[in-house]
Hints:
Layout lengths: L2 H4 L6 E2 L6 E2 L3 E3 L4 H13 L4 E3 L15 E3 L7 E5 L4 E5 L4 H10 L2 E2 L11 H6 L16 E7 L5 E4 L5 H7 L8 E8 L1 E2 L2 E10 H6 L1 H7 L2 E6 L5 E10 L8 H10 L3 H12 L4 H10 L4 E5 L1 H5 L7 E9 L3 H14 L8 E6 L14 E9 L5 H13 L3 E2 L9 H7 L3 H11 L8 H7 L2
Helix pairs in contact: 12-13, 14-16
Amino acid sequence: MGTATAANYGTAWRNWAGNVSANPARVVTPASVGELQEAVRRAAEDGLRVKAVGTGHSFTAAAATDGVLVRPQALAGIRAIDREAGTVTVAAGTALKDLNRALAREGLSLTNMGDIMEQTVSGATSTGTHGTGRDSASIAAQIRGLELVTADGRLLTCSEKENPEVFAAARIGIGALGIVTALTFAVEPLFFLTAREEPMGFDRVTGEFEQHFAENEHFEFYWFPHTGNCNTKRNNRSQGPAAPPGALSAWVEDELLSNGVFQAVNSLGRAVPATIPSIARIASRALSARTYTDIPYKVFTSPRRVRFVEMEYALPREQVVEALRELRAMVDRSGLRISFPVEVRTAPADDIALSTASGRDTAYIAVHMYRGTPYQDYFTAAEQIFTAHGGRPHWGKVHTRDAEYLSRAYPRFGEFTALRDRLDPDRLFGNDYLRRVLGD
Length: 440
């Protein structure tokens, strides 16, 4: 091994939440696909495993390795826009925020997206990142083609026409099938969304859940534990023009509920847990209804500076209300003190083998705890409720499921693992997390 490699030794890596760390033997930042292929071949020769890591927004050890850590951030930028086909091809290390802004400048947009846009496009899609939508699905479901460096150093081009069996699985591949180098997304002409946010009681929002889902293109809500209060958000297409939130309502949403003030409130709650229920009542009552209109990424996404740990499960949509009521009853019975709202979103069924919405209309329940607060008791109790409803854990968020459970939860699990056996028989892209969730 040369001196360049030696210089990379001891480069520790931590994820965004700080709950996962790794000490790779070496870190590589390839500036081209060819350099990445060479790094993969060399790792195989040296008997080292390889993982690509994005911005570390996953809460699992999906990207952790003691071998070669690939940072794809130099593989960034838009490669091509095909307006006739309605697609954009983008390098894997591109941050979603950079893609969103570049598309907007071109008068284009993704159809749907999650609520954070710090992730790389490959990291976000590989773990199944999603927003909320009645008809429009996860970011991965908007992929029309992808490039993948496989364990033998080859570059595979995949779409519905080319290597379709790989395409069916690799759109959400959890890093198990190879390293994604480029993605082609479906895009459409830029449009406006009008967001209507409205506080609503827990009993009303759960009682009317199906109605809200049916009447809105994008519906989600947050429930504040220790209260009967929720905040609902409905995003629907409109003619515009842009009418962004006013300064005061932007401050309430971005600082009180998401960042600066929220950070202080959570720090107090961590130090003095007994204050949490009264803080929750005050915070949830501070909300007022507001309506604003903007281009999609400015409505779908928001900054998240307060660090937390998260678990999210995908349930059959018709079971989500019952599961949420059970979660509320559990919190009320327990001595738990929960300072973060619980988030509920939806997605239509899709055709990706390991998508959390694979083959079924889905609703998601996400539970969060402030970073540094013990979360195991809350997450364990929540997970018992979610798994009793046939839940599928988000691949990038905290969970304790293993291959035995997941093989029952996913009808196409065997299809994915058989493809992995063919593409990576020696587990060059393996790690402890993949061994747990996919088996050996």
